[in-house]
Input
Amino acid sequence: MTLVIAAEGENFVIIGADTKNVINYPGGIRAESNMEDKLIQVANHVCITIAGVGDIGTQFIEKFKATLKSREDGATYIAEKFSSFCKKEFFTKIADTIKDSYSPLFLISGLDKIGNKYKKPIIFIEDSSDAFYPGRWKKYAFIGVDIIANYLFSKHYRKSAGQNKLPNLIAQTIYDTSKCDGNVGCDMKIFIIDQNGVREISKADILKLYRTWEQEELESLVTE
Output
């Protein structure tokens, strides 16, 4: 299982995911690794993230990425093109050979142009059960273990939060989920997509996010 989050800012998108990969073998044997790269940049202002069976989903994304030309960009354009790709790749090649539980689930997030600048945040989810139709989500979206995410975002999310605040909420959400669900965890990755493109928040800065919100929580308890 996993947790992937995308959240809109005023003119940017923040995406985050854990990196745990879990394989359950017959007989109750369980294997875990910290090697699952669930956030993949496919265009200058677009990333595709994955939940479900990582190996199939990653192959889809990498094969799709190889079909794109460098000038192709924009979240809506990429989502529509990826939808067509997945329909052909999935339903004509592997749908009859795998179980529904092995179907990949994708979250596409990034920016569309307003005028000559990429600054309109866009989030889509594409699922085989909906024939990979690009379903548009407003404000934020989750795939994977989303119970805690739904609670925290309904309580704390503000689109007006800046690039210094919104990653904080995503880091807290993934961290809290990992403490309650053993299928989520290991390292996390957080990307920012703004008009300058995609960039990853460093591990050191993610640790600072932990310290920030834990300190704020402690201070609020002491002062109440």
